[in-house]
Amino acid sequence: MRNCSMYIDYDFEKAPKSHELMKLLQSNSLKTVIKAVKTLILCIIHNVNYPRMLMHVFNYVVPKQKESHALKKVMFYYWEIVEKTSKENGKLKQEFLLICN
């Protein structure tokens, strides 16, 4: 488990598959997107790996932040816990470099 200042018990038998979570993040319903981001946060805290989810968050969730204060608040938690550097070389992930440019 990763070092984290909060611990939330979560039933991993109900943890969605990667493609299911991607569909939820692409939803037009803000409530569905917020729920999906919360699920993603819980999974990341408990060390469940979704390696390609970062680009889907950039593409589908970030543009919707301005529509909902609740989504913006949940995204602050997401940005706190998401891995920003690669484990191989310790450099900033390519996805973050792509977004910055």
Topology readout:
Layout: H1 18-25, H2 30-45, H3 53-61, H4 69-81, H5 94-100
In short:
This protein has 5 helices and no strands.
Note down, in words, how this protein is organized.
The protein has one domain. It is 52% helix and 0% strand. The chain has five helices and no strands. It is globular, with a radius of gyration of 13 Å. The N and C termini lie far apart (32 Å).
Category by helix and strand content = mainly alpha
Major sheet attributes: none
- Secondary-structure element string: HHHHH
- The tally of strands reads 0
- Distance between the amino and carboxyl termini: 32 Å
List the defining traits of the structure above.
single chain, 101 residues, mainly alpha, 5 helices, 52% helix
